[in-house]
Structures are given as structure tokens and as C-alpha cells.
ATP synthase epsilon chain (Sedimenticola selenatireducens), 140 residues
Amino acid sequence: MAMTIHVDIVSAEGAIHSGQAEMVYAPGVMGELGIAPRHTPLVTHLKPGDVRVDNGKEMMHFYVSGGILEVQPHVVTVLADTAVRAADLDEAAAIEAKRRAEEALAGQKEQFEYAKAQAELAEAVAQLRAIEKLRKIKKS
């Protein structure tokens, strides 16, 4: 029997996932993180992207818009502003959000507007990447 670690993924709307995993992968601001059972304690910021939870039987994908990752030797907690099962992402809405953010960047007047548009663009692109990863996995 493989060692496992408990994983909780929580957003402002509520709990998205709670269960055991053999491995967890998350998009840290300094790069991709791989967390196995008995990992060294860690707290870091997450950037928008795909959180993957491998329970030994299947790889589950979740999109997070950013947030905080806390790792303890036997527990991983993802606190996200927004968290969605990757299969529930709306590709058309993500494409539209990307288009609006790119328009806002082109027509920005103030630094605040520019920073907000950049954040919206990064989130839309991360959603589209998560959709594309899931699409590739389903094909194989």
C-alpha cells in the first residue's frame, strides 16, 4: 500500500475537494511544485493554473485562480480565491475573458487599469491551458 497525504482544496465559495493522494502538483509562483507524503512544511503563493491530485487510481485536475498552498507532512491545503474542477471550465468564457483583457491592455490609461488587465489576462490564459491539458489527457 502506497503512502498517502490528505488534500483539501478550498475556495471562497466552499470546499472543492477533500481526500487522500499519493502525489499533488501545484503551480507555485516560483515554479511547479510536487508534493509527496511527508513533504517538508511549506507555505507559498500559487499562481493561476492547474492543481493535479494523483490518488493512485486517477489524476484529478482543478483550476485555481491563485491563492496559498500550505504543506504539512501529512496534509496539503490549497486556499484559492477561485477553484473549479478543470472539467467544469467554460472554454468560450475563458476565450472571451482573454479577448477583453487584451483589449483593456491595449487601451489602458492608468497603471491600476494595466495591472488589473494583466491579472485578468493571466487568469484567462491559465484557464485555457488547463482546458488544453485536460483535452490532451482525454485523447490519450
